[in-house]
Specification:
alpha/beta, 12 helices, five-stranded parallel β-sheet, about 425 residues, about 15% strand, single chain
Length: about 425
């Protein structure tokens, strides 16, 4: 018991520090990948359906130069957001160079991570002849940009994960927790882990994960038998973990989704294990935030499952990026690369067909999708991205691929 209490005290110190540092950022909750920042979903003022009503197709001559306006937070107050903004710009430039299309022109605009600045940047992009906007990163900025450009027929491929801002003309390309939850729970259900609990933080990210769980339940592959939520503090986790563990055990849960990461995840899983929600019997499941070295530092996470991009594809992209720019790119830098590739593929297709509405809704949401940095990516009709994700298992020092990412999407899939 004394050893367990000492461990909790150590976790408390590390977790409290991570929360203090997180409070300095402009975010309201944890992001989906290590070393990145989440979207500012609390600043969004309307849904994607309201925004999309303003969308109309812009006629573009595919034989003439096409301008891509990239909006990223290069001078954001948060160092993490600013660094990611630079990495997104680098990855977009890498995508342009690989396409080798002299008619494809990339212009980069700084949003400073603020909706008002993003709107100014969008107006400048329109004045410069933008045919499509790539970015911005945050959902509040995405809404502000969409209000400026959609009335002019210019679509937006945002890097946000906030599905509320998606719709016709606004395409959310981030790794949405709803989609990740569906992927891991579909896999878990197929492995016989059908009775699922969710223990989530009281944040927009946690709410999004919960929506994904409910969507997976509607498919009939799993059944939600327990649900709990906690305040993002050590005391909040400590208080909520015991009743949730009891409820999940009593309900016969054989899997539990923990949509958190880092020190928070370590505290959550350790407390649940302490309260006899044994991971040997109840499989611990996660989302993309588990894709971090921190997941190796808590014994109760060993053997847990989570969705993530194919590790070999990540290594290939990182190698290409590092050879040109140096350093290792954050996973979310791939979104800048993907957006450019999507625009480039649609432009090449339009040259073959002669169509002038190359960025209209039907084209962007084509069922076959596009080839992204880590594999296939496509947009559903509601404007939300689906990424081809693998299922990984937490090993002693590495992640093991249990189920590979799909190689592509069939027209009828």
């Amino acid at each position: 018991m004394r050893g367990r209490l000492s461990k909790f005290r150590a976790l408390f110190g590390a977790f409290a520090l991570s929360l203090a540092l997180g409070a300095c950022s402009q975010s309201s909750g944890p992001g989906p990948w290590p070393g990145t920042v989440p979207n500012d979903s609390q600043t969004a003022s309307s849904s994607g359906s309201e925004t999309s009503g303003q969308s109309r197709a812009l006629a573009i001559d595919p034989s003439q130069p096409v301008t891509l306006a990239l909006l990223v937070p290069r001078t954001a107050q948060s160092d993490g957001a600013a660094a990611l903004g630079g990495a997104l710009a680098n990855a977009a430039q890498l995508g342009v160079s690989e396409l080798r299309d002299p008619q494809l022109r990339l212009r980069v605009y700084d949003t400073a991570g603020q909706p008002a600045t993003a709107a100014v940047a969008a107006r400048k992009a329109l004045a410069d002849g933008a045919d499509i906007v790539l970015g911005p990163l945050f959902s509040g900025s995405t809404k502000a940009v969409a209000d400026v450009v959609l009335p002019e027929g210019v679509p937006v491929i945002s890097f946000s994960t906030d599905t509320a801002v998606a719709g016709i003309g606004v395409y959310v390309s981030g790794y949405a927790p709803e989609a990740e939850a569906r992927r891991i729970l579909d896999y878990a259900g197929a492995q016989g882990r059908r009775f699922v609990g969710i223990f989530r933080p009281l944040t927009p990210y946690g709410e999004a994960a919960d929506r994904g769980v409910r969507a997976a339940s509607a498919s009939g592959r799993i059944e939600v038998v327990a649900a709990g939520a906690y305040e993002r503090s050590f005391k909040g986790i400590e208080t909520a973990s015991a009743p949730f563990a009891s409820d999940a055990s009593s309900a016969g849960a054989n899997a539990v989704l923990l949509p958190s990461g880092g020190k928070e995840l370590q505290a959550v899983s350790s407390f649940l294990n302490y309260h006899r929600l044994d991971p040997a019997r109840t499989k611990y499941l996660g989302l993309g935030q588990w894709n971090s070295r921190a997941s190796f530092q808590e014994a109760s996470l060993l053997g847990g499952w989570f969705p993530a991009p194919d590790p070999d594809a990540v290594r290939r992209f990182s190698s290409l990026y590092s050879a040109r720019f140096g350093g290792q790119p954050p996973v979310l830098a791939s979104l800048g690369y993907n957006a450019v590739r999507i625009a480039g593929e649609l432009l090449a297709e339009a040259r073959q067909t002669g169509r002038a509405d190359l960025f209209d809704h039907a084209a962007v949401t084509r069922p076959a999708g596009f080839r992204g940095a880590f594999g296939p990516v496509r947009f559903r009709d509601d404007g939300v991205a689906e990424h081809g994700l693998a299922i990984l298992e937490v090993g002693q020092r590495t992640f093991v691929v249990l189920d590979p990412a799909p190689r592509g999407y069939g027209a009828g899939s």
